[in-house]
Structures are given as C-alpha cells and as structure tokens.
Amino acid sequence: MAEFLASYYPWTKSLHIIVVLTWMAGLFYLPRIFVYHVERAAVGSETDEVFKVMEMKLYRYIMNPSIILVWVFGLALVFTPGIVDWGSVWPYAKGAAVIGMTWFHMWLGLRRKEFLAGTNTRTGRSYRMMNEVPTLLMLVIVFAVVLKF
C-alpha cells in the first residue's frame, strides 16, 4: 500500500488541492448567501424559497462531496511515506485547522436547516463575522504546509 501511495503522490496531491479549492469556495460563499437571505427575504416569500434552493444545492452538491474528497485525499497524503514529519509542529497545526474547518462546514449545515425550517435567529452581521472563520483557518493551513514550522 505504501508503494502505491508513493507512486501516485503527485496525483493525490493535485486532486487534494483541487477539492480543497471547491470546498473553500463553498465555505466562503454559503455564509454570504445567508447574509443576503437574512437581509432580503421574508420567511415564506418567493425569494426565501429561491435562497433555500441555492443553499441546498451549494451545500449538498458541491460542499459535501468536496469535504469527503478533501478528507480521502488528505488522509492518503498523511499515509504516504516520507510526506509528514511527525516531529514538527506543522502537521498538528494543519490537522487542528482542518478539524476547525470541518466544524465550520457542519455549523453551516445546521444554519441551512434553520433557514429551511424558518427558524433562523442570526443576523446578517453575525454571518458576516462567521464568514471570516474559514479565512483564518486557511491561513493556518497554508502557512503550516508551506513553511513546515
């Protein structure tokens, strides 16, 4: 298995980067949709229903497959011999940030269900603030992987 992972390392790394990009696009965009949903659509209105469809399609068809593949290819990279230096801090920093990003993904899913039920209580401002979470986690991940501190 180790030999297989090592021989496909460039492919695994490339696919990991691609699905990270699609996942991040969703993590950045869904909270922005929530902002507009809160600020521009009354519960039960036609606009409310349009936002619900947009949110569902982004979450289910882009973000959920992306998070699964991010974890699959990421774990493949972790198990590829010679890639991770477990004596360094960077893999733990990256791992913690990825877990944080996964939590944020799940948090967005719960908020989407609240919109679906018409029970959202958060403001556009709170969604704007939460929209900064993936940016901060992304910075930790990129600096950890590139600088390998």
From TrEMBL:
Catalytic activity annotation: protoporphyrinogen IX + 3 A = protoporphyrin IX + 3 AH2
Listed EC numbers: 1.3.99.-
Localization, UniProt: Cell membrane
Origin superkingdom: Bacteria
Binding site for heme: H16, K94
Recorded metabolic or biological pathway in which this protein acts: Porphyrin-containing compound metabolism; protoporphyrin-IX biosynthesis; protoporphyrin-IX from protoporphyrinogen-IX: step 1/1
Top-rank EC class of the record's enzyme: oxidoreductase
BP GO terms, sorted: protoporphyrinogen IX biosynthetic process
Record-annotated membrane-spanning stretches: 14-30, 61-83, 89-108, 129-147
Keywords noted in UniProt: Cell membrane, Heme, Iron, Membrane, Metal-binding, Oxidoreductase, Transmembrane, Transmembrane helix
GO CC terms, sorted: plasma membrane
Bilayer topology: Multi-pass membrane protein
Free-text remark on how the cofactor is bound: Binds 1 heme b (iron(II)-protoporphyrin IX) group per subunit.
Primary site of residence: membrane
Subunit structure: Homodimer.
Protein name: Protoporphyrinogen IX oxidase
Organism: Rhodovulum steppense
